Amino acid sequence: MKIQLGLKENWQQFSLLVLVNMLVGGMVGLERTVVPLVGTEEFKIGSDIVIFSFIIAFGIVKAFTNLVSGVLADLYTRKRVLVAGWLVGLPVPFLLAWGPSWNWIVGANVLLGISQGLAWSMTVNMKIDLVGPQRRGLAMGLNEAAGYGAVGLTALLTGYLASIYGLRPQPFYIGIVYTLTGLLLSIWVIKDTRAYTMLESLKGPGNGNAVPSKKPGLLSVFKEVSIGNKDLFAISQAGLINNLNDGMSWGVFPILFMSAGVGLEGVGWIKAVYPMVWGVGQIVTGPLADKIGRKPLIVWGMIVQAIGHLVIGIGQLPALISGLSGSVLLGIGTAMVYPALLAAVGDSSAPEWRASALGVYRFWRDIGYAVGALMAGVVAAWLGIIWAVHFAGLMTLGSGVLVWVMMKESRAVRN
Fold it and tell me: Under CATH, which number does the domain 11-406 receive?
């Protein structure tokens, strides 16, 4: 059977991958509302750093798994790595629902980090493989819209279930459905896409700033993406700061708004709005990155996120309104940057080493979860929990300025 690059030519497999990534994202949504409150309410943990330890564990493990995921994909095919991700994630909802101590929750997040690093990385790579260079923004917009839309919907659903049945175990039952469904789809209906990468490589560059080359080793790619190429450096630091915001909000928002008198269902809405707007918005911002370029969306997206932090941090509005308004702005800003950053990495790396480049970028991006949670814990213990929001806002603004100064536009020029 002849293979062709393009979304139209591969819409069936692309749609199945969108569905799989919704299930991958839903596994993260399981934790957004309920798990920080399990630490404070059920296990009576008083230290912010200890509470945020599950996010730190998740972020570090996911980051390092991202780093090796591209190498594993080239060794064992994308499909096998995707299936492995689901297998690792199978115990997670059971540990979250019935783990007898906080260490079990942290252990579940180690497994979740590995699972996400493998499974989400492969859905990103497989979609980029299918669509070719001219529709990367659209592909990443649809991919991340599916994943983070599911994060938001699941966060809302778990908050609702927790308000009716309690924090555990009922909110985590849906995770059992997610893992089993995702595993079966990945085994039986998803097809490997590495042949599409080979086809694109044969067709020539057409990849923005990318230069075709023989495939370098992971260490060389790590150096190139991290410090060797100033465009990729700017992209990587923006990804880190973007997920720093997410890691901070993951741990801080439930505790901050519960202490301000917002009920559990209201906290569920605040936690849901951010990833839902982030997810749905990428349906627009993904193709927009193909039309107007990557850089404008990245720069202005970071600025919009900084404004969202300001709305939450100034405390001039009722807590629920400021939480919802700030979360909407955070979601809009993140929707602007997320597909543009991924597409820019694809533009600036040749097909021969793109999977490894994406893995390195996603390493730095997802280290942001751990950095954000650790920053939030330290700042909250030192200055108070609201200052974690202020610090994140200042870092986000600085990151956007750095992209504006350093990064060249990377969008491929169409014939």
Answer: 1.20.1250.20
